[in-house]
Amino acid sequence: MKNKIVFGVMLFCSFAIAEEVELGTILVESSTIEGIAADAKTEASTVNVIDEKTIEQIDPKNINELLQTIPGITADVRSDVVEIHIRGVNQQEFMGEDTGVAVVIDGVPVMQDGGKVRGINIDEIESIKVIKGSASYLYGADASAGAIIITTKKPKSGSGGEVSAEAGSYGFQNYKAKVYHSTDKYAVDVLAGYKYEDGYWDQTQNDQKTASGKLTYFIDDMSDIVFSADYTKKYQETTRGSVTGVTEADTNPTGADDGNLAWSKDYYSDIYKYYITYNKDFEDFGSLKVITYYYKDLYNYISSPQDINGDGDDDTYTRDNDKDIKQYGIKSEYRDTVDDFAYMVGIDFGKREYDDYRETTTEYSSYSYRTRTTETYYVGESSLDESTEDRYAIYGETKYKVNARFTAVLNLRYDYNKYTDDSYDHDYNGTDWSDTSSTDSEVFRNLTYRVGTTYELNKKHTFYANVSTGFRNPKIYQLDDNPGLDKETYITYEVGSRGNVGSGVFYQASIFVTDTTNIISKVDGTYNWDSDYYDNVGDARNQGVELSLKSDRNKKFSFNAAYTYLDAYYTSHNPFVVAYNTYDQAYDIKGNQLPRVPHHKFDLIVNYKFMPKWNFMTEFYAQSKYYADETNFVSMPGYEKINMRVDYNHNKNLHFFVKVDNIVDNQYYRTVYLYSDRNDDDILSNEDASITVDPGRVLYAGLKYKF
Q1: How many domains does the chain have?
Q2: Cα(first)–Cα(last) distance of the chain, in Å?
Q3: 246 — phi, psi (to 5°)?
Q4: Which residues make Cβ contacts (< 8 Å) with residue 496, sequence separation at least 6?
Q5: What is the pLDDT of residues 156-169, one digit of tens each?
Q6: Which residues contact 459 (CB under 8 A, 6 or more apart)?
Q7: CATH number assigned to the domain comprising residue 62
């Protein structure tokens, strides 16, 4: 696999032809303004961009299909659920912790549920920017590993619209309609869409209805106000898409014949996003941006299948669940440039609410490994956890041009976070009902920074370097048994170079090291169900090299390439416990690789306009093998895939395309988890792994008409 990836890099380099990319003038970084990283000559961190044209050509079905074109991104994908990681940081976590990647939509970090962000309307994305390294200096605890910044489409000038339809394998359908209108006083657009898919895997049907709109009112030549609303209604049958063991993955990759029920089912979601944004450019000094937002994500599902009739197979779901996520607040930034000095100051005030309600709907008995007893659960028993986070932060950035070539950068952010947990339980002991409640709160204060520098070697090459920090506060439930738990801390060291090579290929290359200290986890192993005692179990180091190259998309021939070498390992760790059928075994995992982190990843996209109206695109992606869990006993093979697409533009109004994903029909292991001796044979092997198998070759075709 390594040789294939290296060969791909060499093959790509032989194609290098493009226009020279002109770099900008000094600008300050911004966590909300869309011009982030436009100043490539004075940006001290690695920032990658996916533009609207690339998004349209890739035509992604999930956000990972876009992010894999950027070096350093790893993602766990099951059905249409994506968990995003940057440079492998926190890759060992998949059971509910956030990944330390801030997903920012139009300036607002969106609250996540266990590292997974739902309700991203891919059809509305105009661009994606990825900030690498600890980016808490911009977004606080959300961005300990970096940030994915999504900018949605703005209303177009003039009047018109477009409609599109797409169909594909496994019942895939996608219909969209958009209209827009603008005058010298306002601009407005409205988008509606419907998406449906049967799903390749058993019980993975899903559909999604979306409606969104933006209204921009031009107050005067120097200011405007934007009103934005987005609604998504989504149904997802299950999030499973996995089978147990390599034998099952080869013989029953969809999971249709394994007789198992998914742990949870019938997800119904209602997602609302509202924004009001005010922009003001002052005649003699600076600019101001103010964003107020309200985000609501309501979803419910059934869970906890049990064997009620005693035949040995689960047959009934026994619990109803409601999870409501709400966040609202205000962000504001002011920035200005005075001679060779530029600065930005910002505030970020907001509130997040997370309500988790569970109710037993069917009486059943189950053996608890935690208490070593059989417990009976009665109809009507319920619990409610209400978590609230108050967020207050002030942050800023300064850039100073020491001379014509040398720029110094400093970022600071101070976060005040107050967490409150209210818990309510309604229980029955077989005779009497009882109600209990508790309230806990904690306050955390954190100061994070980035110190960086850039040096313009000449008109084509700029060197940059930075040190940045991040943090993750412990959760209140983790502090219940261990009030001395320390926060996780992150520090990233990075050096790199960007500019033009050859006849104009834009490149960016970096070397990085991220050290994670005081990893928060269960003291006897991440997946030990016998104890909820959390501690700071160890430290990790993620280090590697990234390279991206990009040519001018307007040329007859163009390309985009991304290569990552990543080495992620534990520098210290408590003994790691594996639960076997008849015993538990502790292992020393110091020096082991973090799971699901391949050493090598390579993505190459080539576009060729072989006729005035025709464009051919091919994408080659490959990654090397990786370990399935922390013990490093079991490794999973790497894989490669090739996607192809042909576009035909009949005229300015009518567009048609055909796309084939995974054209060689390679049913590789898309995502693998391994956390216990699942087949109870007292051996940890690849037959215990939970494996999501890629569907293989998938076909799509669609058309778009503009009016």
Answers
A1: 1
A2: 48
A3: -70, -30
A4: 46, 463, 464, 465, 508, 509, 510, 511
A5: 888 999 999 999 99
A6: none
A7: 2.40.170.20
